[in-house]
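Collaborator request, handled under Task 6.
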Amino acid sequence: MDEVNACISANAEQEELVDRPEVSKGVLRVSGPFTVEGVMPEELSLGEKGLYDPTPNEFEDDAGGPVEQMKNIHAYLTRMVQCLRSDGVTFMNNQRKKFARIEPLFESGTGSIIHAEGVWEEQDGAGPNTIAVGFGPQYGPVTAQQVEELVRASKRYDELVIAGFSFDAAATNAIQEAAHPKLRIHQAYIRPDINPAMDGLLKDTPNSQLFTVFGQPDVEVKKNKDADFVCTLKGVDIYDPLTSAIRSTGAEKVAAWFLDTDYDGRCFCVTQAFFPDQDAWEKIAKALGSSADTEAFDAFKGTTSLPFPKGKHNRIAVKVIDPRGNEVMSIQTLKD
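Structure tokens returned to the collaborator:
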């Protein structure tokens, strides 16, 4: 590390950092109380070849490594099934469906990608299990490969619940493409503070809305007279558990939505951001008084994007955040 520091000192541009920034009296800064929550990342160590995962695995000589790893996975899945059994799945408008029966499959050691199966309370508890459940990893997002494997393994079920702490863009796209009339897929987000890795780090342990489902964005993309594109968020398609039907909610239910006008399939880059919640903007405008820019506020709280040209990747991505902080993304290909 001494050699690295010496190299940086010799070649990098030097900048003096001070704790007394210049004061700009003509700028009004707006901020408020906020909290930051996150799941503890997997511990990495610094070796000769850079960062690596020190966790033992089956390729190492430590005979106890794989056994200990399987114990950790088993404990994690057991905790998730217990939480799902006690709280069920929460859909939009706080509509909740609980399980009359849920049975873990990972305990049998069959190696199935499906971790549990069960039936909803309103269904025939004596009948066969009709709901398949798959959990994402304890650390990291649900991937497209896991989604594809779960869909293939769920052919005999009516519904599939894919629950994860986060979903990567490819996984969200795979769920959209896997839509099938005989298999309804629910993308459920797990509250990050029930992760076993967070034990002892929080004052209160949550006991409700542990698994929440947020629908797919209802997006419309059109070309304007200048040959640019305009994206409109019409709402969110959500599943109504009471009627077993898909319906669209208005965009006003959305806390925020972001647009990447040239999505490369790997990294989501925010190029436009909007916050449709009218009440929040009215409160800010009232607090700012004459300093508020009415036209700018109207643009920020809109559901229609600013015009943008087609990028080299020929597709866009829209990321929507619901009032509970869950996010879901829709990918659209731009057509001439």
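The cover message to the collaborator said: "Residues 55-64 have pLDDT under 50 and may be disordered. The first helix runs from residue 2 to 11. Please let us know whether this matches your experimental observations."
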